[in-house]
Specification:
Keywords: Signal. By secondary structure, the chain is an all-alpha fold. It has a domain of 85 residues. The chain contains 4 helices and no strands. Helix 3 runs antiparallel to helix 4. The longest helix has 39 residues. It is elongated and about 80 Å long.
Length: 134
């Protein structure tokens, strides 16, 4: 009997905790405000995605090229050695463009959608802030 009462109490607490956010979000003014912000948020998502993706592609391509060149030169003679960096950069330039293009497209679209909806037209929605969430 004691287990049944305890189980029933746990079920009631769990069901009340599920319904609590619904009861708290029943403010009519909040719904109107969120509805009025929808066109602005959609505009922020579109602008953040269209303008932020090329920015993220350029930033990630540059970062990938520098990272790959320094890692490749380290394995040959050291990143301070000019000829080693020159030799490695012949191969890392195309690789950096491909890797940076893929990563930049991902981060540009992600920032455009996520940050463009949360904070429309914020510089981070245009991929001008941190690209990787750390």
């Amino acid at each position: 009997m004691k287990k049944q009462v305890l189980g029933l109490a746990m079920v009631m607490v769990a069901s009340a905790s599920v319904a609590a956010p619904v009861m708290a979000a029943d403010d009519a003014m909040e719904k109107v405000t969120q509805g009025a912000l929808l066109p602005t948020r959609v505009g922020g998502v579109v602008a953040g995605t269209v303008l932020g993706t090329p920015v993220a592609v350029v930033r990630e391509s540059y970062k990938s090229y520098i990272d790959l060149t320094s890692k490749g030169a380290e394995s040959i003679k050291g990143k301070e050695c000019g000829p080693a960096c020159l030799l490695v950069s012949v191969f890392t330039l195309p690789a950096g463009l491909v890797v940076g293009g893929v990563k930049g497209t991902y981060y540009g679209i992600k920032n455009g959608f996520m940050k463009g909806f949360e904070t429309p037209f914020h510089p981070e929605s245009f991929s001008l802030g941190e690209l990787e969430g750390k």
